[in-house]
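Q: Got a minute? One more chain.
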Amino acid sequence: MTDDLGSVARFLFEAGTLKQTKRTGWWMAGVRDPESVAEHSWRTALIASVIARLEGADPAQAAFLAVWHDSQESRTGDVNHLGKKYAPSADPVAVTADQVGGMPDVLASTIRDLVAEYEAKESLEAVCARDADKLECLIQGVEYKAQGYANAQRWIDNSRGRLTTKTANDLADAVLATDSLDWLRAALGERPM
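A: Always. Here it is, folded:
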């Protein structure tokens, strides 16, 4: 195995740690076993593709940005909003540059460019991916609230207030008007609540 592929292999193991890295903000809402960063990132990528398609942006690029948006947390952990008040925030672009060191240049530059695009918040795809990040948090909050975690309402409200695209705002309205198990009822031919 060439050394640069060894760097890729090491990163793939590193990325796997995100499956066990919990989203720490949910602990403040009382959630005992919150979702992992990897779980959050998967649905964020899915939502990004939906928002992008409906906004006229490239859904593949928006999803690609969303997949990588929290990849640095394998090194920094998930620092919630309150924690960022006390600890300086690590620069995602700098962390990514360190993570991809030694990888084939074509791959390393692609990943660095993706993270830089997401952080710059300038392209429509980045805006869609960032809205997807907030909308995923809102949806997760609705699910946690349905499980009895009343304090999740704060995350629902904060996420709702940070959406920027028309599609994300319209989807948030639809989510808030939908029971979290309506999908199951519809699939079974039952009447949604």
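A: The two ends are 56 Å apart (CA to CA).
Q: Perfect, thanks.
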